[in-house]
Specification:
The chain is α/β, with parallel strands linked by helices. The chain has a domain of 68 residues. It is built from nine helices and ten strands. The longest helix is centred in the C-terminal third of the chain and has 18 residues. The radius of gyration is 18 Å and the shape is globular. The model has no long low-confidence stretch (mean pLDDT 90).
Length: 256
């Protein structure tokens, strides 16, 4: 049987910002319907890799492919069509302070898809219910929400378009362990319910184990290990072992 074409693939991607390379030939892929978690120390390039895949940053070299087709060969219309196929939950939720909860969730529907506000609001309310957020919160503003509630709103916005792929950028950052577990559970439910592909970047190993089918370790701008999430504690890889144990000494050099 022929291997499935990856839903998303990075091929020899390079990126610098005027200093040492952030990505140095980064190569990784994720198949349709799979949940991949990218872990690594702070500053290892995790966020940059995802932002390049999402089209928010241009790589210096290398290719990004969706369903086997290079993104670099797409025209503007094709890129916009592709962008509708994915959602993203940003690290800080990235909610608009001046918009209500439902307007944040429906932002793309109203401003990119030009769906009438009434219809967009109904879809936003349904998306909020999917992440277990009552309709009574729809008219509030982000400043009136807790950290966990903001994450739920960000997740509702990420799934409202029924995307083929969702990017999660440090989805439990700044949350307490109980709220983190609740958010991870919601992420798992939404990904499974949609049948979509998920790429999560995190330094939280509890999250990696909960939401990931596979885990890839990023260090020095390249992937140094990839394997099942269940193998994190017995990888035999010195980078992964140090990361899991939290050792100061080892091949990963602290930036502090």
């Amino acid at each position: 049987m022929a291997a499935a074409t990856p839903r998303l693939e990075w091929r020899a991607v390079h990126k610098t910002f005027g200093g040492p390379p952030v990505l140095a030939g980064f190569t990784l892929s994720v198949d349709p319907g799979r949940s991949l978690v990218i872990v690594g120390a702070s500053g290892s390039g995790k966020s940059v890799a995802v932002k390049i895949a999402a089209g928010l940053i241009e790589p210096d070299a290398g290719e990004i492919l969706f369903d086997g087709r290079p993104v670099q060969g797409l025209n503007d219309r094709e890129r916009r069509r592709l962008a509708r196929r994915f959602g993203m939950l940003f690290q800080g939720s990235a909610l608009f302070d001046s918009l209500t909860v439902w307007e944040n969730v429906a932002f793309r529907l109203i401003n990119a898809d030009h769906i009438p506000r009434k219809a967009a609001k109904e879809r936003a309310l349904a998306a909020l219910e999917r992440v277990r957020m009552a309709r009574q919160f729809a008219g509030l503003y982000p400043a009136e929400l807790s950290g966990g509630m903001k994450k739920r709103v960000g997740l509702a916005r990420a799934v409202i378009g029924d995307p083929d792929i969702i990017f999660f950028d440090e989805p439990t950052s700044g949350l307490d362990p109980i709220t983190s577990r609740a958010i991870n559970t919601l992420i798992g439910e939404q990904v499974k319910g949609l049948g979509c592909t998920a790429v999560t970047i995190t330094h939280d190993l509890a999250s990696a184990r909960m939401v990931g089918d596979e885990v890839a370790m990023l260090e020095g701008g390249v992937v140094v290990w990839r394997g099942p999430a269940s193998a994190l504690d017995r990888s035999g890889n010195p980078f992964v072992d140090q990361f899991v144990r939290g050792d100061v000494e080892g091949p990963i050099k602290s930036m502090v």
